[in-house]
Amino acid sequence: MSTRVPDEGSEPRGDAVDHADGVSRRVALGLFGLGALGIAASSSAHAAPDERCFSVTDGRIEGRILPSGIETEGTLTGAGPFNGSTALSIAQLAPSAGLTGSPVPPTTLSYTGTFEITTKRGTLTLEDVGIFDADLTTDGEFTSRGRVVGGTGRWEDARGVLFFYGDAAADQTFTARVNGTVCVPK
Q1: Cα separation of 109 and 146, whole Å?
Q2: Residues 2-10: contacts with CB within 8 Å, 24+ apart?
Q3: Would you say which domain of life the source belongs to (predicted)?
Q4: 104-155 pLDDT, tens digit each
Q5: CATH 1.10.10 fits 48-185, yes or no
Q6: How much of the chain is in helix, strand and coil states, percent to nearest 5?
Q7: What's the distance, Cα to Cα, between the start and end of the chain in Å?
């Protein structure tokens, strides 16, 4: 693999800036994207003969951040059997995405918490790990990965992963997209 090095004295384009390891920004982002796809593909649950799997390809959460600032509530739609109410309770927050000594601004927060989806058939509990970037003028963006850690009713003994990404507005409301797969015993 070759990377283009700008001529001395010229201003490099954004995609031609070499990092210390010789990888351009464009290549690094491409590798990151491929890695994320690989993680998503390897993380999605595959049904065993005694399981039934449910895939969510474009669920949507409409919600709000509660006054505590570390809890949310919302409604999940477009997710088939997972349609219902949602609640996130953040247990830990870290500024600068938890990376000390990095150029990441302190308004980029990493977090972990418990995310619950309450449906007509029970509650699905996920361990949620995410990034919230509040370094924007009027709103913020977030992305997270929720690993199933428990459930009640139909979701008892469930396993799988759901991915979330979205935007939060200045009025403390947010929208999120949901994708992933959850499997349950037949």
Answers
A1: 17
A2: 3/27
A3: Archaea
A4: 888 899 999 999 999 999 999 999 999 999 865 557 899 999 999 999 999 9
A5: no
A6: 15, 50, 35
A7: 48
| 155 within 8 A of 174, measured Cβ to Cβ | no
168 and 140 in contact (C-beta within 8 Å)?
A: yes
Name the token pair of 103.
């150029």
Rounded distance between C-alpha atoms, residue 142 and residue 136, angstroms: 12
Kindly provide the residue ranges of all beta strands, DSSP E only, lying in 40-121, ordered along the sequence: 51-65, 71-77, 84-94, 108-119
Domain coordinates in residue numbering, the chain:
1-43, 48-185
Q: Tell me the whole-structure pTM to 2 decimals.
A: 0.74
Contact 131, 107 (CB under 8 A): no
Q: Predicted confidence band at 44 (pLDDT cuts at 50, 70, 90)?
A: very low
Taking 70 as the threshold, does the pLDDT of residue 37 lie above it? no
